[in-house]
C-alpha cells in the first residue's frame, strides 16, 4: 500500500558508547587547536609572502644542461629500481608471513607473526634506512632494504587479512574431495585473493616511489640524495630540476598502477 512504512527496516539504536566516542574525538580536535601555537597571522603576513616568493623565485629556471639531465635520469632510474626491488622482496616475504599470520598454523603462530609485522611497519622507512646505513653503507642498497622491511609489515598484514576474509567454501570443497591443504590453498584460496593482493602490492609500490625519493636525504641514493646535495649548496635551479623529475616519476607510476589495477578488475 502506498505510504505504508511498516515493512521498512528499523534503524538500530545508537549506543551511548558511540556518542561518548564521538564526543571524545570532538574534544580532542578542539583541544589540539587550543594547545598548538598556530600563528596564522604570521603565516599570511606580507613579509612571509614576500620571503616565500623570493625563495621560490630562486628555483627558476630549472637546470637543463644535458650533462646534468643525464645525472638526473640515472638517479631517477636508481629511485625506481629501489622502489621496485624493495616492493617485490616485501611482497614475497609478506605472502610467506601472511600464512601463519592468518591463523593457518595455530593461534600462537598467528599472534607471534602479527607482532613481528607490527614492529616492522611501525618503524618508518627513514629510521630503517638510518639503521641500515651503518651496516650496509651509503647508497641504494640500504634504501632498498629499508623499503622492503617496512613494506613487509604492511603487506604481510594486508595479505593475512585477505586470507582470513576469503570465502572458505571453495577450499573446503576441495578438501572434502581429497585435496591436500596446500593444494586447496593454491587452487582455491590464492586465486580468490590474488587480485586483491596484487592491488595492495601496486598501491604500496606507489607509496614506495615517494619514500624512495625521500630516503636519499639520509644518504640512501637516488633523487633524494641529489636533492639534498643541491639544496645544501643552495643550487636552487638544479634542485628544481630534481623536484620536477620526482613529480614526473610519481605521476607516471601512478598512471601505470591505475591502468594495471583496472586491467585486473575487468
TrEMBL record:
Q: Is Lyase a UniProt keyword of this protein? A: no
**Subcellular localization, per the record?**
Cell membrane
* Topology within the bilayer: Multi-pass membrane protein
Coiled-coil region list: none
Which parts pass through the membrane? Answer: 16-36, 80-101, 126-149, 239-260
One family from Pfam that matches here is BPD_transp_1
- Name the Gene3D superfamilies on file: MetI-like
Tell me its family.
Belongs to the binding-protein-dependent transport system permease family.
Q: What is this protein called?
A: Phosphonate ABC transporter, permease protein PhnE
Q: Which organism is it from?
A: Janthinobacterium tructae
Ranked from the top, the taxonomy reads:
Bacteria, Pseudomonadati, Pseudomonadota, Betaproteobacteria, Burkholderiales
